[in-house]
Specification:
Layout: E1 3-7, E2 17-23, E3 30-31, E4 36-41, E5 46-50, E6 55-59, E7 66-68, E8 72-77, H1 97-100, H2 103-106, H3 119-127, H4 146-162, H5 166-177, H6 190-205, E9 208-216, H7 218-235, H8 241-255, E10 262-264, E11 267-269, E12 276-278, E13 280-282, E14 285-287, E15 290-291, H9 299-314, H10 320-323, E16 328-332, E17 351-355, E18 359-365, E19 368-382, H11 388-403, H12 405-409
Parallel strand pairs: 12-16, 16-17
Antiparallel strand pairs: 1-8, 2-4, 2-7, 3-6, 4-5, 6-8, 9-19, 10-11, 12-15, 13-14, 17-19, 18-19
Helix pairs in contact: 3-4, 8-9, 8-11
């Protein structure tokens, strides 16, 4: 017997431990070399762990285990060939003879992704105790997507409420009237633990203050409405608020380097470029991958970069390299309905801009009351490096650019 030990590899110089979030292959399955066998959740991203040899997989670690770098994850018995192991691929469901004829047309191409859920989908299915074998994957190569998992949960709920059962009909009223108080304890994910630690560190290690202002988005909305169709026709993507806000911030950050700087011990690090981290909500928590060199990008390039990062983040596919860097952060709580908030600095950065919900409000314009689309802006900053006057000036400059977007487009 020839055994290959699979150990947690070195992932990054700052990462000393990972969590085995999900097995992609069952214990006893035959795996091929370079075929992903499980997923690790690190402090910054979810990573697939490929097999180092072909053979029979023997699980050592369990899902949810915290593993140090170099810890044993699994063993692979290379003396076992694929023919000696029952294939883990689910058998074709029993179907009427009439449907069996077009098999040459309907048989899909399968690989390791077939029937396996994405990290987000896996979390949903585990919470609802739904077997992955009962869920059809519509993603690439038959992968179970988050949408597939949500649909499976909905189908389960429908079946539960419509399937007649004497036991259920008797038990249901008892549960609803008993006043039962259920407590569920779940282990905090590694990403959530990391987010918690970083937020506490930011509160404790920085002299954080927040300044507020409001912006009238009338001109910005008119610009988007007037040129949206032409923008989409030329670039193939919509002109959103994020690219306009990011570009406005980048312009002011280049003019006010203190807001774009960070503290390193007794030194101040200044940047002659602007990498804006965009806060993205995912099923596993908030991530802030940066869009690099925003000051040099066109609006469509910023939109494509944000979309690419958001898609990868929600699918758990962000690489460690894509998570590195960032000199300033923008977070948009408005998409969830937030009217005003005090965002927490994303260390080691020195400032973060909080966008909020756009609300029609009465405002005084040239002595008259008009209804305008208004948004509150919040700038949280580290007072150790950014003075109060600097923070207020920064926010006012961003406000002016957004209220007169022609100056932003013409770089005035």
């Amino acid at each position: 017997m020839s055994i290959v030990e699979m150990k947690v590899p070195t992932i990054g110089e700052s990462i000393t431990e990972v969590t085995l979030s999900q097995w992609l292959k069952k214990d006893g399955d035959f795996v091929k070399i370079d075929e992903p066998i499980c997923e690790f959740e690190s402090d910054k991203a979810t990573l697939e762990f490929p097999a180092e040899a072909s053979g029979k997989l023997i699980h050592v670690a369990k899902e949810g285990d915290d593993l140090s770098i170099g810890a044993l994850v699994a063993r692979i018995d290379t003396s076992v060939t694929q023919g000696n192991v029952v294939s883990p691929t689910p058998a074709t469901p029993v179907a009427p003879t009439v449907e069996a004829a077009p098999s040459a047309v309907s048989a899909p191409t399968t690989n390791y992704a077939t029937g396996h859920p994405s990290p987000a989908a896996g979390k949903i299915l585990r919470e609802e105790n739904i077997d992955t074998s009962s869920v059809s994957g519509t993603g690439k190569d038959g992968r179970i997507t988050k949408e597939d998992a949500v649909l499976a949960v909905q189908n389960k709920a429908v079946q539960t409420t419509t399937t007649p059962s004497n036991t259920a009909s008797v038990a249901a009223p008892v549960k609803s009237t008993s006043g039962e108080r259920v407590v569920r304890v779940e282990k905090m994910s590694r990403m959530r633990r990391t987010i918690a630690a970083r937020l506490v560190s930011a509160k404790n290690q920085t002299a954080m203050l927040t300044t507020f202002n409001e912006v009238d988005l009338t001109a910005l909305n008119e610009l988007r409405k007037k040129y949206q169709d032409k923008f989409v026709a030329k670039h193939g993507i919509k002109l959103g608020y994020m690219s306009l806000f990011a570009k406005a911030c980048a312009k002011v950050l280049m003019e006010m380097p203190d807001v774009n700087a960070m503290i390193d011990g007794t030194d101040i690090i200044y940047h002659d470029y602007v990498d804006i981290s965009i806060a993205i909500s995912t099923p596993n928590g908030l991530v802030v991958p940066p869009v690099h060199n925003v000051e040099s990008l066109g609006f469509h390039e910023i939109e494509f970069a944000i979309k690419d990062l958001a898609d990868k983040a929600r699918a758990g596919k962000l690489s460690l390299e894509e998570m590195k860097g960032g000199t300033f952060t923008i977070t948009n709580g408005g998409v969830f309905g937030s009217l005003v908030s005090t965002p927490i600095i994303n260390e080691p950065q020195s400032a973060i801009l909080g966008m909020h919900a756009i609300k029609d409000r009465p405002v005084a314009i040239d002595g008259k009351v008009e209804i305008r689309p208004m948004m509150y802006l919040a700038l949280s900053y580290d007072h150790r490096i950014i003075d109060g006057s600097t923070s207020v000036t920064f926010l006012v400059k961003v406000k002016e650019l957004l209220e007169d977007p022609v100056t932003l487009l013409m770089e005035l």
